[in-house]
Amino acid sequence: MHHSDPFSTLDNPAWWALTSMQQQFATGPQNAKRYQRGVLPFAALETATTENLLTLHTLFEPGELFYLIGELPPLPPGVQLLKELPCVQMVLQEATALPAGTEPITPLNASHSDDMLHLINKVQPGYYEKDTRRLGNYAGIWQGNELVAIAGERMRLDHLTEISAICTDPAYTGRKYAQYLIAHLCNANLQMGNTPFLHVLETNERAIRLYEYLGFTTRRTISFWQLVSSL
């Protein structure tokens, strides 16, 4: 590991999350881990070898989709690549000076899990499962009884917290709700000595501009690989 780079664990973020701060959510032997089913469809290899991927594949049922982040080894039989999602990985190193929004920000908990699932699946389906909220703190903005914006914490490594599930109901966009929620979570993490990071699709220029406005800088481009365990 390059000690000159304080964020080198972010080259293999799921691995360092699953073997440190989130090991209670991990399943798998020493060289290959996955998040428990229902928590997150992410998996990781200690090193990107075909042999380790073969081990990982035994942790998935036939037809089960999962994501690897970073280096992808040559695929063994039984693992099929569906798509590559090139992302920009960004970090925030100082508090974001965003004026407070007028809407109250509410911590979300187990009693809100159906509302959370409904909103996220409406806006960006595929990465969030019923128990994903157990990975970190989630915050939301409500209009009446309806949850209309959300942001939360997903992968957590030593002194690093991924900001994720940033969603606003299409009927409520343009009100800066996402900005307020991201700033709220980021500043709370920075106060605790954790550096916030996030992943955004390279093609999502609007989101990248928002994160830059909030003070995030690009660390690198990194791919999420969507794989399926075949028969």
TrEMBL record:
The keyword Ubl conjugation does not apply. Gene3D superfamilies: 3.40.630.30. Its EC number is 2.3.1.-. The keyword Ligase does not apply. Keywords: Acyltransferase, Transferase. Residues 90-231 form the N-acetyltransferase domain. It comes from the Bacteria. Pfam families: FR47. GO terms for molecular function: acyltransferase activity. This is GNAT family N-acetyltransferase.
